[in-house]
Amino acid sequence: MATPPGLPPPPLVVASQTPSTFKRTRKATRLRSLATRPPGAERPVVHVDPATGNADNPHKKKLRIYLGIVTRDKVDMTYETWKEVPTTQKDLIWEIIQAEFDIPEASLL
Question: 43: which of 22, 23, 54, 102 fits an S-S bond (Cβ 3.0–4.6 Å)?
């Protein structure tokens, strides 16, 4: 039995494909290396320039990724700008960041 003209051919199904292998989606990033850090282990030290706010050491990429993770988890996306986020929520985020990273220049900011 042939398909009627104008219709696309039916998709080929391979026996080895299962429904779970058709589409792989990206999962949430959690920065597992920080989450699995043993208790009592030293926090990564990040040096931040107080004038520019830029980090300049090997842990700067890890800090930047962690900032994004915490912000996505803790800040509601209905805020259009960072200035609209309540100060109490910003303080909570800052405490979470300081719990994971040692930022010596934090007292200068």
Answer: 102
The residues pairing with 55 across neighbouring beta strands, listed in sequence order, are 48
Q: What 3-state class would DSSP assign to 102? A: strand
Residue 47 identity? H
pLDDT (tens digit per residue) in 27-69: 666 666 666 667 777 888 888 887 887 887 888 888 888 888 8
Please, which residues have CB within 8 angstroms of residue 54's CB and are 6 or more apart in sequence?
48, 60
Question: In this model, does residue 21 exceed pLDDT 60?
Answer: yes
- Residue 84, C-beta contacts closer than 8 angstroms, at least 6 positions apart: none
Residue 4 belongs to some domain of the structure = no
Residue 97 resides in a domain: yes
Distance CA 101, CA 70 (A): 13
Q: How many domains does the chain have?
A: 1
Q: Roughly how many angstroms between the first and final C-alpha of the chain, as a whole number?
A: 75
